[in-house]
Specification:
Blueprint: E1 14-17, E2 20-23, H1 27-40, E3 44-49, H2 51-59, H3 61-68, E4 71-74, H4 77-87, H5 97-107, E5 113-118, H6 121-134, E6 139-144, H7 153-162, E7 167-171, H8 176-184, E8 192-195, H9 199-204, H10 212-216, H11 220-227, H12 229-252
Parallel strand pairs: 3-4, 3-8, 5-6, 5-7, 7-8
Antiparallel strand pairs: 1-2
Amino acid sequence: MSRVGPPTTPKNDETEIGPFAIQCLTSGEVVAGVKEAVRRRHRLDIAICNAHTLLTALDDPDYADALKDMTLLNDGIGMGLASRFLNKKRFPENLNGTDLVPRILADIETPLRLFLLGAKEEQVVGAKAHIEATFPQHVVAGYRNGYFGEAEIAGICADIDAADADLLLVAMGNPRQEMFIARNRKHLNVPVAIGVGALFDFLSGSVIRAPRLVRMAGLEWLFRLLQEPRRLFRRYVYGIPRFFYAIVRLRFFGS
């Protein structure tokens, strides 16, 4: 499998958090890696991992196996603290998908054909409209909301291939989006697939992002919790302490 990174770098710098190798890359290096994968039609599957992603994977061996076969990027203050605590290593940038994917679309230079998969119908249609207006050099060649059953997956994979897509953006949350990519990869010809979480909600305007100063302070998670307390309460109020407990165990007990 291709790995993101500048063409001149034979082996990417990475940091291990438990069984997961997280790449230490700048957003510019990610853009270059995506461009190269598209040019060469090489498979590149990207999972943007925050604390919730890794905690879910530590609880679910099947999900952990799926992540290990992907290029893992860091998202959020929890990942940065974990890397520093375990390895005394800082990430060059915070690579959250809400900023990273628009950066890829803005900077890649190569016109892309995109397929958008996930979210509700209104949100995916809104994300399509936003991308077409903001990045007219690219073509949204197909889209599908994320509400479907197992019997529909073969048809969705056929639609993605029929669209001749270069980049598949899957917005179905963890672990569903990465599991969709892993389980259906052999049926997909698209070179680059990225799990993008709530990206379509933000692009469509249905969810408001935290102000820039809040994001710079690493508190976007708190802003989101205040927006959607019922949905995100367990993830953040229970999840954050569990994540740091897991990190402490990794540091002192290795499991």
